[in-house]
Amino acid sequence: MLESELFGHEKGAFTGAQYRRKGKFEMANGGTIFLDEIGSVSQKMQVDLLRVIESKKFNRVGGNDVVQSDFRVITATNESLEELVKKGKFREDLYYRLNVFSIMIPPLRERKDDIPLLVDFFIKKYSAIMNKDIKDISSDVLNYLKEYRWPGNVRELENAIERAIVVGKNEIINLQDLPFRIDNISIKDESDKSLSALEKKYIQKLLDEYKWNISKTAEILEIDRVTLYNKISKYNLKRIDKVK
User: Fold this and answer.
1) What is the per-residue pLDDT across 12-46, written as a single tens digit (0 to 9) for each?
2) Are the C-beta atoms of residues 90 and 84 closer than 8 Å to each other?
3) Mean of the pLDDT values across residues 100-113?
4) Spatial distance between the Cα atoms of 218 and 57, rounded to a whole number of angstroms
5) What's the pLDDT tens digit per position in 134-180?
C-alpha cells in the first residue's frame, strides 16, 4: 500500500486497482514531498526510496514505463536515525542521502514558552471545525499545561485541547475539560507525569473517597458507569478495605 501511495499504480496491478493512479512522488513534480516517520519504513522501501531520490525516476506498481519527477524531499522522525543505522535497521547510504540539512526541534517540555501559542492555535483550529465558540483557557489550565512533561509531545497537547473543546460547555476551557480532572492532584514530585498515570491516580482517589460507589464516582468524573468500569479494568484498580 505504501509503494502504491508513493509511486502510484497501473490499472489491474492488484485487486482493487480499477484505474491508473499517480503516486505522491509523481504529484510532487516541481514541488516538495514530506515523508513523516521515515525511521519506521521497511528495508525494501528504504532501497526504493534511495533509488528514486538518487535518480528521480521510478515505475508505477504494475507498470513498465519509467516516470520522471523533479521533487524536493523533506523527512521527519522522532527516532535517532544514527542509532538505527548502528543497529542495522536503517540504511547508511539512505541516511547520508537524506541528511543534507538537519533541523533539530526540541521536545515540548524543553520549550514551554511555545505552549500558549500552540494552545491558541489548536483552540482556533478545533473551535472552527466543531463550530463551537471557545475563546480561551483558564489560567489554571495554562499553568498545568506548563508544568506537565508532555511525553507525547505536541500531538499529545493537540489531543488534550481537541478533547477539551469536545466536552467543554463554556467559552473558557477549564481543568475539568481536560482528558480527566487533575485538580487536587499534586504533580510536583511525581516521577510518572503521563496523562494516563494522572488519570489512574485521580480515579483511584475518587473511588476510595466515595467508598467505591460507582454511580457517584462516574457522576463526578462526568462519564457513564460502563466507561468507568472499563477504566477500572484498564488500570487494574483495586478496592482496599482498611483494617479496623
Assistant:
1) 888 888 888 899 999 999 999 999 999 999 999 99
2) yes
3) 90
4) 59
5) 989 988 888 888 888 888 889 889 999 998 999 888 899 987 788 75
Q: How are the residues of the chain apportioned to helix, strand and coil, as percentages rounded to the nearest 5?
A: 50, 10, 40
Instruction: Let me know: does 152 contact 116? Beta carbons within 8 Å.
Output: no
Question: Which of 220, 226, 229, 227 has its CA nearest to residue 202?
Answer: 220
Beta carbons of 152 and 161 less than 8 angstroms apart = no
- Give the DSSP per-residue string, 50-88: HHHHHHSEEE-BT--SEEE--EEEEE--SS-HHHHHHTT
Residue 165 C-alpha cell reads as 473543546
Give yes or no for a contact between 119 and 145, defined as CB atoms under 8 angstroms apart.
Answer: yes
